[in-house]
Amino acid sequence: MITFLRAVKGRAYPRVVGALREPSWMFWEIFLPILSISAFVMVYRALEAPKEFEGFVILGGIMTSYWLNVLWGMDSQFYWEKETGNLQHYIIAPASLESILAGMALGGMFATTTRALAILFIGTWMFQVDITVVNPLLLILVFIVCLAAMYAMGMMFASLFLMWGREAWVMSNLFQEPIYFLSGQNFPVKALGETVAAIASLIPLTLGLDAMRQLMFPSTYSWALMNPVIELIILLALTLLYLILAMFFLKKMERLGKEKGTIITRWL
Amino acid sequence: MQALKTIRTAMWLDYQIMANWTRPIIFFTYNIAKPVGSSLLLIAMYYVVTGRVVGSAALSFLFVGNAFYMILAQVMMSLGWVVHDDREHYQTLKYIYISPSSYYVYLMGRAAMRFLMALFPAFFLLLLGLLIPIPYDFNYPLLAFTLLFGWLFMVASGMLLNSVNLLTARHGGAIGEAFAGVFYLFSGVVFPVSMLPAPLQVVAMYFPSTYWFSLVRRSVLGVEVDGIMKNYTINQCVLLLAITTGMFIAMSIALYLTMDHLARKRGTVEMITTY
Q: What is the pTM of this model?
């Protein structure tokens, strides 16, 4: 257990320090995403949408920053580590790959939270969005469990993407816009119809966004997919499911990599 | 002649990196998934506000703008990654640097192929627009000119990003997309420039993309509904697109030379970051 925690700390450390040491990150991670969010807010303004919809965009922007971190900092990270020659060191180290992934997740969450907070404060100030939190405790719980489910999904995909090789990049790209649409990044996912929304609920982002929208903008309750407590329970189940699958695929990836000798093979 | 050879080789290389992991049909399907997802997102936003997904000037405006923005976004997204990919992934940047080719020209070639590849999804989206239905009224010569100049300003913009990347750490794949957000907001892509606050409208007028998107709408829809841009004639738009593109090219060359000098001085040409 001590080794596990040390490995988590060790892998989280470069991400935390990196986020603080590399000033250019601040520009790319905070200022530029605000521009895209502003564009979506302007679309709603041009369409004369209710003010709450602008809040949806800001909330979507915050959660998308975590989703992007999951995609590029978790899903494709093992593949990247292999390409830069680090993966073999992780495997021969006396620590589990799960602890390395957990460290990546915690470090990534820290770095992304700075960006998310900036988007929240700058976005709500710039567009004068009113947020009315009806149940702060439930909101915090939903947020934390949603992050846990997203990063657990990221852990699962990390090993899958590694097995798929160069397609990892392709998958990360593919999991952006289509997922933004399916998860209802900027609009209530109920608009997609209950069947599509139910399928999209396998993506933790979908349920997390829907629950948080209800808890932050109660006047839009009619657009809710389901009760936030039920969504919280489903998110917990998804976290557990993705963690189990992550452990299974990690073992499989390690075994296949050793058998085929692909753990140190680069540029494939 | 050497420059043309470099561009041709870089285009071939770019296609191999992008597409040789699978069969062409799968690659082209993948290539259109992202733009389609983006368009559906906007249509869904339109639907939740208006309760319908068919015909209006606003829908045509945002659908066509977004379809062509996808070209810009794909080029930016790819170019935002090229330097880091060459430097840290394939670790070939230093070899390209010591080859007789110019790295700037090499990047122009990489951008050219991305631009060509991004045209397919844009045309696919235009076909998809028939379902909504978007009232197309094509002006083909104008569209051809607009696309050609589009490539020039996108290369120049991509080079601005690449030049900065010569000095920065790896930020993941979203950096180019974030950079493209500048154009998304300031160019009247999915909402009229007149919706921007007055000081930002002035900023928008210095972007070639503002005139480019206006020309796109005129060549695809036959009209310009943006309150500000419709005050410009087609000829004025063309002239302003040429002038602002020239400015962007000059800026990109100046920035590239500066960043290239600094990168050599600081030794970041071989930098590897493993955050």
A: 0.85
